[in-house]
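Private note to self, pasted from the team thread so I don't lose it. Backbone tokens:
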């Protein structure tokens, strides 16, 4: 099904991606019932967040739709979305209203999704694929900040647990379960894992992460895999060294917001429990000292603060060796900002291109993006590929876009 596309066609697909994230995509129950989740395709597992526009529990939803070019778009379900997928003559087709857009497929599930750990837990509830060679584990599907009334305003982790934990069998993960799952995924070509989750007490967090790293290294007798720890900024920055000593190859502390006053308002727990905004910056600086440039990442929830302040933050963090990545904000169900509207698709596309320009100007490569961020087949992956900076991994490259020209990105 895959077809080669031009640079201009890629940019139209980037715009379509942002539009679907903003406006959502609809699947009727009749269409959802025809998607072979049992044997072939991945279903959404809400291990940490529900990234749809509304809570939908009646049937399984696909994780992504794959356009005919191989471009992947994350499914963000909304019942009244202008975009919708229909089944016609045995083929799935994406429409906007009555306008035909493309024939689409879904993302195949790996074999390890249907395997169980030695204590009987389905591995797809332990880790979820985030690309052809990467997976993410949300060890905890709740955040302790809720007990203090200090949840980040955009976050719906606790609502997601309430709606999906029992429905999908999602619980706290043990180090042994994570190691067994990664070992199974490794045999199928997966080479990177991120460990993340909601806030837990700092000392308990580092001890848990060390246990996980030790279990993984005991299970996988090789040196061609990586583990990234996604952590809150510790009050004692020396704790960061312990993650490196335990065997983590990358680390992440997600600031989410750059503007100082908006950070306080939107991320009250990060401000009050983790030493404040400056401590997050100090932690990222120390993480670069310990792990090196290109092995440290910070995500931002793009669309809440002004673009100018966000770009200032991306520029500053890139200048000190952090890979800063803006993520497209969807006002998720169950968050304090549910019902709000994100900026326009054009706003996001402009931000994406400016953010990519910042990465390039500071010498970051596709490898740096891969090593630090638990994303793959993202907008930034496609832009690196367009510039000819490809990852050297056969499994990853089997799902990349082929271009008709070698024109680079003009930013």
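Design output:
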């Amino acid at each position: 099904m895959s077809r080669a596309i031009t640079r201009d066609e890629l940019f139209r697909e980037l715009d379509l991606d942002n539009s679907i994230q903003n406006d959502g995509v609809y699947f009727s129950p009749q269409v959802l019932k025809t998607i072979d989740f049992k044997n072939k395709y991945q279903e959404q597992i809400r291990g940490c967040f529900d990234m749809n526009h509304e809570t939908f529990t009646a049937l399984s939803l696909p994780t992504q739709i794959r356009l005919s070019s191989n471009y992947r778009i994350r499914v963000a379900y909304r019942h009244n979305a202008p975009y919708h997928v229909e089944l016609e003559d045995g083929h799935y087709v994406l429409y906007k209203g009555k306008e035909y857009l493309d024939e689409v497929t879904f993302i195949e599930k790996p074999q390890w999704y249907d395997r169980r750990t030695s204590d009987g837990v389905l591995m797809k509830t332990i880790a979820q694929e985030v690309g052809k060679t990467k997976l993410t584990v949300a060890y905890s599907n709740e955040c302790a900040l809720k007990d203090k009334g200090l949840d980040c305003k955009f976050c719906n982790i606790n609502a997601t647990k309430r709606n999906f934990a029992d429905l999908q069998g999602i619980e706290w993960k043990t180090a042994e379960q994570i190691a067994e799952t990664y070992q199974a995924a490794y045999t199928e070509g997966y080479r990177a894992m991120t460990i993340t989750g909601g806030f837990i007490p700092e000392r308990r967090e580092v001890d848990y992460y060390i246990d996980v790293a030790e279990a993984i290294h005991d299970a996988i007798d090789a040196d061609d895999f990586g583990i990234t720890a996604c952590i809150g900024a510790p009050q004692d920055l020396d704790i960061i060294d312990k993650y490196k000593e335990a065997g983590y190859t990358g680390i992440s502390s997600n600031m989410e917001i750059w503007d100082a006053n908006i950070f306080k308002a939107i991320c009250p727990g990060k401000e009050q429990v983790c030493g404040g905004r400056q401590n997050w910056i100090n932690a990222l600086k120390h993480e670069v000292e310990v792990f090196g440039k290109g092995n440290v990442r910070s995500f931002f929830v793009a669309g809440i603060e002004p673009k100018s302040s966000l770009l200032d933050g991306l520029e500053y963090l890139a200048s000190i060796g952090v890979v800063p990545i803006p993520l497209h904000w969807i006002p998720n169900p169950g968050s304090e900002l549910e019902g709000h509207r994100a900026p326009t698709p054009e706003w996001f596309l402009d931000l994406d291109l400016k953010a990519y320009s910042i990465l390039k100007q500071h010498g970051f490569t596709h490898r740096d993006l891969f090593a630090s961020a638990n994303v793959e087949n993202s907008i930034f992956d496609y832009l690196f590929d367009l510039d000819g900076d490809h990852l050297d991994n056969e499994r990853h490259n089997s799902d990349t876009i082929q271009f008709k020209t070698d024109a680079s990105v003009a930013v």
